[in-house]
């Protein structure tokens, strides 16, 4: 039997325990950790829900979630897992629920991690109440889900308020993309191999594309998404974090501060996109009706809870530049959207063509080397090289070397939240964001948000099931390039 990842007893207090994130990601991840024997036996999950929720009804609901989304299900394991879950009804603004929680947590005496899977405007309220009920000690930690705030200003207000109650070392700002196996493999490939470092710069790399495409629409999350949109929901955090991991200098060690220091340098070196550059370099779209995964789906404005005049973007693509020696002149094209042709997440590092070809190459440009990190649906890495076509003629053709992570051993690749939940409980902050990272990211996207708010230009409509608006294709075509269409 392997040693659990979380060896010490713990109390995990989950605010938003009935919400979408708890349902889709957090509870299944905790269940998987439990199934794999990776959680200390003395670990409780305090599910915070609205008062009047019945423990037995909640447990039934959770059973349904893990049955559908957990790694494997059997009654015996489920029973043991369900005993970890304790429901506490709390009205987040009122003292009563917190007093109940305090009694229960004080009785255990174990270190507590508060996980805020609720809207970020509630973070200050939760902190105030925890403090008022003596629920914060030097052994507590708090995990904050993204997006923290709606822009630079509101992000700053929330951070400052939380900092009145928790030290920076106790605050875990989560971005689950950093917990994905391939993102960590990106670090391993970049910094455990010497062959890439010499090529990893503007002399050899033509451009980089980072895509997170989803086939789902807004689902039941219009209440959150209408005021958020793709720029705040995905680009300000997930895409920029992937960009940092790809572009950062080698950190001195894997210690949290070394890694965070290098990431923040990248964010600070991002060339601001302001004024006329916004229309030139940023595309926003909103899905219209269309066929997604074989089914006719409605346009965004017809989704339940969405305003029929909504200008919320469900797609964003942009061209970013990093003003430093390594990356000067190398565009980073980022895009994300809902209801796109395929669910995928990829980082494509497109190398330059050879300076002079001695071979007959029909499609010289498409034959340039390409390193692709596939984050989903399958995790792995592929490298496009050229080889001689077998036969009498000296003809060269592209070939792909693939490294599939699930082939490495036959174990299941853990979900990002499994890794990050264990890290937060173990108090390892390496894969979490420091305050200055978050604020620098907000500072960079703020001018785009302001421009959209004040302009009467609306997002371009794109057909559900496509690769987004035509302007997105044009963004690269203007530079003589094409998106890697995730084929
Ligand atoms: C979340 C966003 O952070 O990431 C969602 O709020 C999005 O809108 C989700 O669907 C995508 O995560 P994953 O891991 O399923 O790609």
From TrEMBL:
NADP(+) binds at residues 50, 91-92, 146. PROSITE patterns: G6P_DEHYDROGENASE (PS00069). Substrate binds at residues 176, 180, 214, 233, 338. Its EC number is 1.1.1.49. Pathway: Carbohydrate degradation; pentose phosphate pathway; D-ribulose 5-phosphate from D-glucose 6-phosphate (oxidative stage): step 1/3. It comes from Bermanella marisrubri. Residues 13-185 form the Glucose-6-phosphate dehydrogenase NAD-binding domain. Transmembrane segments: none annotated. One of its GO terms (biological process) is pentose-phosphate shunt, oxidative branch. PANTHER family: GLUCOSE-6-PHOSPHATE 1-DEHYDROGENASE (PTHR23429:SF0), GLUCOSE-6-PHOSPHATE 1-DEHYDROGENASE G6PD (PTHR23429). The active site is at residue 238. This is Glucose-6-phosphate 1-dehydrogenase. Gene3D superfamilies: Dihydrodipicolinate Reductase, domain 2, NAD(P)-binding Rossmann-like Domain. Belongs to the glucose-6-phosphate dehydrogenase family. Residues 187-484 form the Glucose-6-phosphate dehydrogenase C-terminal domain. Keywords: Carbohydrate metabolism, Glucose metabolism, NADP, Oxidoreductase.
């Amino acid at each position: 039997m392997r040693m659990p990842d979380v060896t010490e007893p713990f109390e995990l207090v989950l605010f938003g325990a009935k919400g979408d994130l708890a349902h889709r990601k957090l509870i299944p991840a905790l269940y998987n950790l439990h199934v794999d024997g990776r959680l200390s036996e003395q670990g409780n999950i305090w599910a915070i829900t609205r008062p009047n929720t019945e423990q037995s009804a909640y447990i039934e609901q959770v059973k349904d979630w893990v049955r559908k989304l957990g790694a494997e299900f059997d009654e015996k394991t489920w029973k043991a897992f369900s005993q970890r879950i304790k429901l506490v009804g709390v009205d987040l603004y009122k003292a009563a629920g917190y007093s109940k929680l305090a009694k229960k947590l004080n009785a255990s005496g174990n270190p507590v991690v508060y996980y805020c899977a609720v809207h970020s405007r509630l973070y200050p309220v939760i902190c105030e109440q925890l403090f008022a009920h003596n629920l914060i000690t030097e052994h507590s930690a708090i995990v904050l889900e993204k997006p923290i705030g709606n822009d630079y200003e509101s992000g700053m207000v929330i951070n400052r308020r939380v900092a009145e109650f928790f030290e920076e070392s106790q605050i875990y700002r989560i971005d689950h993309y950093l917990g994905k196996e391939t993102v960590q493999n990106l670090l391993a490939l970049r910094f455990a191999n010497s062959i890439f470092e010499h090529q990893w710069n503007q002399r050899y790399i033509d451009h980089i594309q980072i895509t997170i495409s989803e086939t789902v629409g807004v689902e039941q999350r219009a209440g959150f998404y209408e005021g958020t949109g793709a720029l705040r929901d995905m680009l300000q955090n997930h895409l920029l974090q992937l960009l940092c991991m790809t572009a950062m200098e080698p950190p001195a060690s894997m210690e949290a501060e070394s890694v965070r220091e290098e990431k923040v340098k990248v964010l600070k070196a991002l060339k601001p996109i302001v004024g006329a550059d916004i229309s030139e370099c940023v595309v926003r779209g909103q899905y219209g009706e269309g066929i997604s995964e074989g089914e006719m789906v409605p346009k965004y404005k017809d989704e339940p809870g969405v305003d029929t005049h909504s200008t919320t973007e469900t797609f964003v693509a942009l061209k970013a530049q990093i003003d430093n020696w390594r990356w000067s002149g190398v565009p980073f094209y980022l895009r994300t959207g809902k209801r796109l042709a395929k669910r995928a997440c990829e980082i494509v590092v497109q190398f330059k063509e050879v300076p002079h070809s001695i071979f007959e190459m029909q499609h010289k440009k498409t034959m340039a080397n390409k390193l692709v990190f596939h984050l989903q649906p399958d995790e792995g890495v592929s490298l496009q090289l050229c080889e001689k076509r077998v036969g009498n003629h000296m003809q060269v053709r592209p070939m792909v070397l693939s490294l599939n992570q699930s082939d490495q051993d036959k174990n299941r690749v853990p979900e990002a939240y499994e890794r990050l939940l264990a890290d937060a409980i173990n108090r390892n902050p390496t894969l979490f964001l420091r305050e200055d990272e978050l604020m620098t990211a907000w500072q960079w996207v703020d001018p785009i948000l302001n421009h959209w708010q004040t302009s009467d230009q609306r997002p371009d409509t794109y057909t559900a099931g496509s690769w987004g608006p035509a302007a997105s294709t044009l963004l690269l075509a203007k530079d003589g390039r094409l998106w890697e269409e995730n084929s």
